[in-house]
Amino acid sequence: xxxxxxxPGRPALDVLSRRCGAGRDGVHSDGQxxxxxxxxxxxxxxxxxxxxxxxxxRGRRGRRSxxxxxxxxxxxxxxxxxxxxxxxxxxxxxxxVVIVAYTVTLAHRVELMRRALNHDATLxxxxxxxxxVSDRQLPVYTxxxxxxKEPQVVAAVVASMAALEYPPSRLEVLLLLEEDDxxxxxxxxxxxxxxxxxxxxxxxxxxxxxxxxxxxxxxxxAGEFVTIYDAEDHPEPxxxxxxxxxxxxxARDVACLQARLSYHNAEQNLxxxxxxxxxDTWFRWLLPGLVATGAPIPLGGTSNHIRGxxxxxVGGWDPYxxxxxxxxxxxxxxxxxxxxxxxxxxxxxxxxxxxxxIKQRSRWYKGYLQTVLxxxxxxxxxxxxxxxxxxxxxxxxxxxxxxxxxxxxVFWGLSLLWWLDRPAFVQALFPAPLYYIGMLCxxxxxxxxxxxxxxxARSSGKPHLALSALLAPLYWAMMSLAAAKAxxxxxxxxxxxxxxxxxxxxxxxxxxxxxxxxxxxxxxITPAQQVTGAAKELTRS
Length: 541
What we know:
Spore Coat Polysaccharide Biosynthesis Protein SpsA, Chain A
């Protein structure tokens, strides 16, 4: 990894791009022959070959890997000896470490929300400001839309792309389809007629992941700015114009704008209500809180608007990381770039099926764990590039999210055992100081998170979601199941991309005019005042 502010992936990508004739300014078709084959190779392995320590690809074990195995073996040996000699002391020490980590992580979440409520760092652009930029002053904008086995939603996403208020001469929309996905290709050919959307066929090959398809599309793109929309996305039509204005207002070290995400089918069932409240809290409070603290931002998988050249500079997306978005956000921070949150909302389809939700969430958790493992390969270098505060924020947020979900059932189970039978071994694990700290963390932390969910539902203009937010502990149990699956897959199938099925919602997607209403205007009162008002309403009710 190079020093802060430098660009680790650029030299290899530039050289290889010229060799395959896939320069960003010169190619506008997917092409054939050797250039196409080399482009596929680059899409899959350019980052891993150029900067292997920043990729989740499993490869040859070098000196660093062998050293890591030696250190792990020594630590395991010492731990085994300690457990043999002092099992009770070791067990109490482990419980103490976990409770402290749990407490610090919860406190960090509360602090992020406090920061966001006291100072909303979201960038807002009004309709008039967005439309004030003349067409000839707008840059070329590339939109990448990866899709796989989704013929049922292609027509809707093409309609959403055609509804974007951006001049066609400045808009490049690439619908990225796997070349052996015949059904989706046929649906796309029909849906794309007479629209600015161009179908690009991505050659089959491993890894068969969304980031590999996006890398392939990136090498064919011509835009000064690049964004991604998923196949079920419905961005508000002015989002690209807002992003252009926001970039021009921002400092040059702002490399990416993350737009907000929410769901158009929140009312479908209890799972979609929970999911919507969670997403609104994530994008309205947690991410702006991370911006305020200067911590790395784990990007969402869609609606992140990035300077095209910088995206190549940092090596594109990692095809072997199943949350390539979160990994890219951390990599941008390590290279000295910042991410801001854009006040514009993209509507998606919330996962409404339990099994499908577990598949999607376990992939997210697995990717977060991958991202932590990749960037912790050299902890000292990570601290040099992110600083102590940034590294702590990264570990608490990206690492803490799946780890807390894994630990919850353990402590729920111990608590249930204690209430039912008061076994001696549970009492031995929790000396009085640990017991009271753990109980405070559980009661105060859990109550606080439920309260913030209810308050967010009300302050975001969705009071009908407040009742379901009170039932959030049931949602946490689903998260724990997904986290356990993620850990198993991380060991046995680290780069396996478990496909999420879309189109389960039977209602029609939002019309472009309705999506336009998802532009978030600067609030007349502060978010903190909104939450205070929500608390008063909640008390009265």
